[in-house]
Amino acid sequence: SSAIEKLRKEIKAAAPTNGRVLISGENGTGKDLVTRLIHQQSHRRHRRLVAINCAAVPEEWIESELFGHVEGYFSHPEKDKKGKLMLADGGTLFLDEIGELSLKTQAKLVKVIEAQKFEPLGSTDSVSIDTRIIAATSKNLRQLIAQGRFREDLFFKLNVVALVIPPLRERAEDIPLLINYFLKYFCLEYGKKPKTMSPEALTAFRNYSWPGNVSELMNVIERFVILVPDDKITAAHLSLLVEARELEAIPGIANGQSLERARELFEKKFIHRALMKNCWDMTRTASDLELTPQALKAK
Question: Which residues have C-beta within 8 Å of that of residue 191, sequence separation ≥ 6?
């Protein structure tokens, strides 16, 4: 797609520099892949690419993970620990989900970027570093700034090069390419005969909204390779397009299900079957259900 061609050019332009990069995109769009491409095309490619997911580390541990600490800083005995900033010295540090950092840690990070040095926790000695920072977020940082949850000065320091990865639903022309790639990959991975996809099934894949983006597409293709015994994936297999829980029977009254929840599950199953019937064509499905396309998308 033109959006990915544009992104490739931006990566090629940004990679050889030391400019900090801020990557924005929904979950599953490939922000970590873009980071690896930038690092691999930079003059730092022979040094380490160190990653940390800011959303996965508890707040009380994040500063130790980033800055490290000296022996005796914590109550229990522990040797000196190098932080991610030091481990990435000469290379690249990838801060995934940067919007999850506390304001206190954000303030420290601003100082590190300005001075290119920091003090490990419990130490009074500064450590100089030469670390390129690439940050990524699935959140709108400008909204977080307006809410007082993200520092504006940190945003401007990180946003030297801004890269935006569009969601998969906005670049449907990439879907057949990705399908072919993942079909070949997983057939080889599992020792299966090569599989192809019928035009009807391909249409359904193009029409599906892919809320989990490329990550979801990859997982779905892996599921098809494992569960479809035929050499061709057809419209008859489309029940596998969404996760199995979408097709579960509606729990009975014995399970303590409320009427409202039962109605919601029935509606979900009913809409799903209508989508399958129409190969995920939203306009035709909306017409069948006597809804507007906007109302169907909302549901």
Answer: none
